[in-house]
Amino acid sequence: MASTIAVDKLQVGMFIHLDGGWLSHPFPLSSFRITGAEQIAVIRRLGLAQVRWNPDKSLLAGADGAAPPAAQAQAGAAETAARRHRELLALQREAQQQCEHQFGEAAQAWHEAWSAATARPAEARDKANALAQAMVDKLVLGGDVGIRLVAGAAGEHAAAHALNVSVVALLLARSLGLAPEEMLDLGLGALMHDAGKIELPERVRHADPGIGAADLAAYRDHVAKGVVLGRRMGLSEGALAVLAQHHEHADASGFPQRLGGERIALTARIVALVDRYDNLCNPPSRVPPLTPHEAVSMLFAQGRARYDSIVLNVFIRMMGVYPAGSLVQLTDDRYALVVGVNSTRPLKPRVLVHDPGVPRDEALLLDLEHTPDVGVRRSLSAGKLPAPALEYLDPRPRVRYYFEPLGSGAPATRDDATAAVMA
Q1: Is 200 within a domain?
Q2: Residues 234 and 142 in one domain
Q3: What is the rounded CA–CA span in Å between residue 14 and residue 287?
Q4: Of 89, 148, 313, 401, which is most buried, counting CB atoms within 10 Å of its CB?
């Protein structure tokens, strides 16, 4: 049962909800359990008099330091396991819903900036800059953040592409140690890197296989058009560098200036790689998509000359051999869908496991970081899975990513999964 509490009464362990929307505070989620005094200090600086909190989801010590009485109550092993399953499932669903809601908010903010770019460029800049700043804040202030696979509506390719590139590029920038102000330029540039396509006819917005020379030249002109529009918007020089150079390659094989090596801004080198990765997974035309695992493998095999070697190596380490969206077979022969990756421990993703004995909407995610006796054996294409497993896992035709704060909605560990089976 939710109630309100004065901000100056907040304690570590309280589960709270911040009203006002995702862009009104720097936390990755609007609902979360307070884990430290620094979070309380940030909440107080927001100027709120009170916040909503949920005592049932809070973990507060009693007067003697013991756990709450409800946590001590044991109605038998089966009942305890069932209750634990329900609690974990509720946390898991809430974390997923918030992540997908925030993806939707970010997509809407991007659409507003994109739609205003030509007629109201200053307004577009302010909206895009606010979104980029909010995304950077999630990474700088949000603690341990990973990549989450999210659902998305059909027909939103442009927004999903911009957000995919921005999310992965910002996580990569953090792994490379870029300063917050550099990350802001990167985020703004990544969000608007295709701004020059606004003025192009639909037929030349993508370099489809077999495109004619005239249409290819028109397509490539989106870079120059994007820089002109970016200047009208008043974008920072760092963001403009991303717009100008996101199709340049380390081996000088790119366009429009055939720059190479360190003549390309580091932020543009990052976006060039991530842009290619997303286009392999989510091709804008009818080209067959690659699985995330196949895309990473192709970049590693064929992109070592084309892309900055340091950026490419860090990208592969961060995304993991099995990025979110990959279909895999585990070492115990079960099939699974990778739904979340901790960018600091990518070889141990969180997976949805095909289990005929558990309805899909009641299945707990399995965190392979906490299952030393289970790992990933291999990646598979959808056509290699048995029909029941494919129907259960239900991989989306489009791969969409967003930030996921880690630790707030704990996925199942080995003990949790065992308890659920016993129940």
Answers
A1: yes
A2: yes
A3: 49
A4: 401
